[in-house]
């Protein structure tokens, strides 16, 4: 998953919300990389979280692959088969699970 974001003041800013960061780069527009299994689903709205509108769900036995979008970019999230999925999933991620890429070149930063 790659979504456009802006890094500033220790946070990644997307139109839908923010995610905390431990990245040491300077402020600017970047691509934020998040693996599908690195997202955490929150039970409700969270300050450092993102609401993903659910498009469709792939049932994979013990897991589900939930497809939707963030910042108009397609996103996939792995959840446990028992996780209740509605129209919106509130997502968070551990800062160490986030990867930063140059928006123009696509090269990994840091």
Q: What are the secondary-structure elements, in order, as H or E?
A: EEEEEEEEEE
Number of helices: 0
* Helicity level: under 10%
Termini separation: 18 Å
Query: What value does the Rg take, in angstroms?
Result: 14 Å
Structural description of this entry:
The protein has 110 residues and is mainly β. It has no helices and ten strands. The chain has strands at residues 2-8, 11-14, 17-20, 28-34, 39-42, 50-59, 63-70, 73-80, 88-93, 98-102. It has a five-stranded antiparallel beta sheet with strand order 3-2-1-4-10, with no helix packed on it. Strands 5-9-6-7-8 form a five-stranded antiparallel beta sheet, with no helix packed on it. β2 (11-14) and β3 form a beta hairpin. It is globular, with a radius of gyration of 14 Å. The model has no long low-confidence stretch (mean pLDDT 94).
